[in-house]
Structures are given as structure tokens and as C-alpha cells.
Amino acid sequence: NAGVTQTPKFRILKIGQSMTLQCAQDMNHNYMYWYRQDPGMGLKLIYYSVGAGITDKGEVPNGYNVSRSTTEYFPLRLELAAPSQTSVYFCASSLTHRQPNNSPLHFGNGTRLTVT
Amino acid sequence: GDSVTQMEGPVTLSEEAFLTINCTYTATGYPSLFWYVQYPGEGLQLLLKATKADDKGSNKGFEATYRKETTSFHLEKGSVQVSDSAVYFCALSDYNFNKFYFGSGTKLNVKP
Lengths: 116, 112
What we know:
- The complex is a heterodimer of chains A (116) and B (112).
- Helix content of chain A is 0%, strand content 48%.
- Chain A contains no helices and 11 strands.
- Chain A has strands at residues 4-7, 10-13, 19-25, 31-37, 43-51, 54-57, 64-66, 76-78, 87-94, 106-107, 111-115.
- In chain A, strands 2, 4, 5, 6, 9, 10 and 11 form a 7-stranded mixed beta sheet that branches.
- The radius of gyration of chain A is 14 Å and the shape is globular.
- The relative contact order of chain A is 0.33.
- With 112 residues, chain B is mostly beta strands.
- In chain B, the strands form 3 sheets. In chain B, strands 2, 5, 6, 10, 11 and 12 form a 6-stranded mixed beta sheet that branches. A 4-stranded antiparallel beta sheet of chain B has the order 3-9-8-7, with no helix packed on it. In chain B, strands 1-4 form a two-stranded antiparallel ribbon.
- The A-B interface holds A 4, 31, 33, 35, 40-43, 45, 48, 50, 58, 90, 92, 94, 96-110 and B 4, 30, 32, 34, 36, 41-46, 49, 51-52, 89, 91, 93, 95-100, 102-105.
């Protein structure tokens, strides 16, 4: 059972370059999320999706775009990389349960991105 | 809006010492509460959860009780091991949209 798979694990970008961070889950979860984790900080939500074709902004969406054409995949796009986007990016997924069985997040192992 | 505040680290303990990591929250409605653990180079893993007031979550010797009156969800372990060294995150998920809010994380170092 693979769970949540993220690629690549590491990437170095030059300012102004673009890239796509890949995320796939095989648990048939409807909800998917992108977080960034800056050194010594907690996680900040970038974008999330409640199902295929539906996405919405989180706390820090500027400079990013997402798409959700299928349940399994939720790629994150950086169009014009900036040094402020240097971070570790985590993709996560969860079931759609609401209370009382609110389901936990399942995380990938992260992508470490450096923009210079 | 919803938020989570947890004690700053790092926390350094000797093996077999008692651990407490404080976590308080602000939320509307009735959130679920979680503790996640992150080992070096890995993603976060669920450690334990509680979905309603007075529930106690437990796993691997760790415990936390959902206290609505004090809006707290403190993590405890009676006897820590070197293998417990990691970063611990307190989190809540809101009632309506299954969005998660994380604290800033507390790094635990356990010395032999």
C-alpha cells in the first residue's frame, strides 16, 4: 500500500523558473492538501481539494496553482519561482468524514525545494 | 479563525523522564484534535486523536485528553525513549470543511 507519493524528493530552481510538484494517492481519498513547512515553523496550507474538479485556496496560495482532474492526482504548480518559496512541501489526503469520525491526514514524505 | 498554539522547543529530556508538551486551541464549533509526529526526513504521521470533549487519545505510550473547558490537548508520556526524538505537532480539524490547522511543532530530544 503506497499511500501518498510525492515526487521529486529534492529540487533546486533558479529564480523565475517553473516546476510542478507531483502528488498521488491510492487510498481513494476525496480530500487532498498541499502544505509548506518553513524551517522551525509549522505547516501552512497552500491549496486543498474536496474532490476531482474542485479546488480552493488555503492560507498562503500566492505564487502557486493546482489542478485536480482525477481523485488520485493533485499536482502543485510554481510558475515563477522566488526565493520566498524555498521550503519543504507536503502533500496529504484524507477521507470525507465529518464529525464524530473526522478522519486524519495521511502525508507524503515531502519535496525539499530550494530557489536561488 | 481557528488556530493552535503549542509550547516552543526544543525540549531535551533524559531517557525514562516524563514528557508533557502543551497545546491549546481556538475553534468555533466542535473540532477534532490530533497529535502528529515527524521523524527526520519524513512526512508527518498520526500519533493519536480525540474527536469530542473528554475523549482520551492514546498510542505507543503517549496520551492526550480533549479538555473543552480549558481548550487544551496536552501530550504526555510517562517514560520517554531515545527513539521518541522527533518533532511533535498539535492539530485540529474544523467541523465543516475538514480543514486542518497545525501548531508550530515542538522538537523533542531524548538523551540516553
